[in-house]
Amino acid sequence: MTGPGAPSPPPQDDPTGLQSFAVLLRRMNGEFNRIAQEFAQAQGLHLTDVQALIAILDANADASEEPMTPGRLRKQLNLTSGAVTACLDRLERTGHIRRVRAADDRRVVHLHYAEAAKELARDYFRPLARSTDAARSHFTADELEVVVRFLGEMNRELAILRRDSN
């Protein structure tokens, strides 16, 4: 299939080489950014707000991790404390998050993705989930384990890169 909406194949000189990976990752990142931007516009949010929601969701999804705090969010998104406050105020005002004081230390604020907002996001991103599942269906369980390992290593390397650049 060809045309403006059709994905173009990676450079064929070395399909598993660094350039091919870079092209494919940039294309995928561009598509994810487009979808996130459309969600932000549909919700009357800034793209940074959506990035904050993702960070809060991911932190709360990992049971071994403490819930997200404004300070951790500031570091993760590389924002000023004022920008984080404005972002969190928008997200709280629109019902996307809840700020909850920690029971053991009232000075600490935990950020939680509101259940109604999670449902709204699930509905919006359901086509992306279906597309992801369709792509996964083209691979064996062993191949998917390699993909998951690669993505995990990429995330680890990117976290190291972020840490080392600060």
Indicate the topology.
Layout: H1 18-43, H2 47-61, H3 70-77, H4 81-93, E1 97-101, E2 109-113, H5 115-136, H6 141-165
Antiparallel strand pairs: 1-2
Helix pairs in contact: 1-2, 2-4, 3-4
Characterise this structure.
The protein is mainly alpha-helical and 166 residues long. The chain is 66% helix and 6% strand. It is built from 6 helices and 2 strands; from the N terminus they run ααααββαα. It has helices at residues 18-43, 47-61, 70-77, 81-93, 115-136, 141-165, and strands at 97-101, 109-113. The chain has a two-stranded antiparallel ribbon. Helix 2 (47-61) packs across helix 4. The longest helix is centred in the first third of the chain and has 26 residues, at 18-43. The radius of gyration is 18 Å and the shape is globular. The N and C termini lie far apart (44 Å).
Quick overview of this protein structure:
The chain contains six helices and two strands, in the order ααααββαα. The protein has 166 residues and is mainly alpha-helical. Helix 1 packs across helix 2 (47-61) and helix 3 crosses helix 4.
pLDDT < 50 runs, ≥5 residues? none
Strand content: 5-15%
Order of helices and strands: HHHHEEHH
First-residue to last-residue Cα separation: 44 Å
Q: Give Rg in angstroms.
A: 18 Å
**Number of beta strands:** 2
In round numbers, the mean pLDDT is 90
